[in-house]
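Worked example 3 (structure in, sequence out).
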């Protein structure tokens, strides 16, 4: 295959992966908000466990069809990943509950510099000046869009700290494990989803009761609420898979930077659905700054020296984007 044709194919795959992630991520946010606002289903951790149950069923079907091939992931690496992922889920739920919206958004923004630190420390990645500045511009734009009141308390800060670091580590591990063990996104999900499903379904009701003082066994599962739960679980299959595909094809940092496009899209959809209340000059300016930063980041990181590895810390496996192309 000619180099230009191969590059075009990869670019098309990259765009498709991002679109898949954006559509499923925004879709699940809308469905979950409706589920909580209209039916009072506030059991977020247990719901995430349900999401991984349906994702596990998807991987079982794909393995039966022969799409997922046999692969190996050491137990210790699997447990490390699941521990980080579960702390991320619970930490984010607690952070949202204990912190103001403004501080919660600042904590989410801090995941980008934390992810950069992990890549610099573990993968010996070196960023050019333009790449660093473009990340700052993205952070500034999203902050202008989303950060309003900011109040901090001790327990909220601890929850945010745990959530940010565990999320950054979980996303780093996705890229790391795919490269080290030559795992496709489907293969990695096949290993991790069952363990996450079991652990979250076991701990979820206890965590949700601690956070909401409500018991899930007392919830009124009507036909409508059950339909929304099933819809949420169905969309979650795509959300979980697309996250693994995107981080595998790119990096955790790129996933975070361009992923803020979802934040902007949610704001725009809020304006379309709820009118001018969700949009003002501050939000518009923030959107423009963030989009400019994302375009700058894409150009800067793709240039020679924009983002390069100083030494090869991972000696096994192949590039995960190649593994995805095989699936």
């Amino acid at each position: 295959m000619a180099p230009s044709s191969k590059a075009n194919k990869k670019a098309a795959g990259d765009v498709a992966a991002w679109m898949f992630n954006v559509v499923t991520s925004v879709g699940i946010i809308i469905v979950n908000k409706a589920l909580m606002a209209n039916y009072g289903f506030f059991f977020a951790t247990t719901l995430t466990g349900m999401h991984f149950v349906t994702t596990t069923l998807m991987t079982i079907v794909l393995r039966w069809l022969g799409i997922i091939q046999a692969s190996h992931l050491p137990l210790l690496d699997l447990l490390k990943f699941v521990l980080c992922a579960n702390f991320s889920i619970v930490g984010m739920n607690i952070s949202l509950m204990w912190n103001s919206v403004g501080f919660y958004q600042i904590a989410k923004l801090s995941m980008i510099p934390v992810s950069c630190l992990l890549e610099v420390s573990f993968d010996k990645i070196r960023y050019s000046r333009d790449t660093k500045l473009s990340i700052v511009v993205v952070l500034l734009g999203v902050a202008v869009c989303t950060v309003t009141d900011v109040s901090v308390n001790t327990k909220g800060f601890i929850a945010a700290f745990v959530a940010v670091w565990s999320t950054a580590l979980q996303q780093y591990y996705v890229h790391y494990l795919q490269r080290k063990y030559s795992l496709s996104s489907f293969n990695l999900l096949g290993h991790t989803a069952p363990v996450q499903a079991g652990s979250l379904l076991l701990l979820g009701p206890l965590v949700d009761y601690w956070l909401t003082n409500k018991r899930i066994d007392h919830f009124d599962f009507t036909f409508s609420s059950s339909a929304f739960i099933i819809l949420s679980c169905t969309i979650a299959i795509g959300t979980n898979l697309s996250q693994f595909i995107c981080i595998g094809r790119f990096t955790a940092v790129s996933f975070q930077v361009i992923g803020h496009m979802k934040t902007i899209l949610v704001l725009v959809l809020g304006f379309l659905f709820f009118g001018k209340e969700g949009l003002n000059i501050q939000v518009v300016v923030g959107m423009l700054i963030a989009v400019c930063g994302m375009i700058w980041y894409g150009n800067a990181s793709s240039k020679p020296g924009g983002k390069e590895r100083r030494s090869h810390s991972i000696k096994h496996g192949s590039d995960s984007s190649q593994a995805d192309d095989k699936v």
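Notes: The chain has one domain: 15-316. The longest helix spans residues 3-39.
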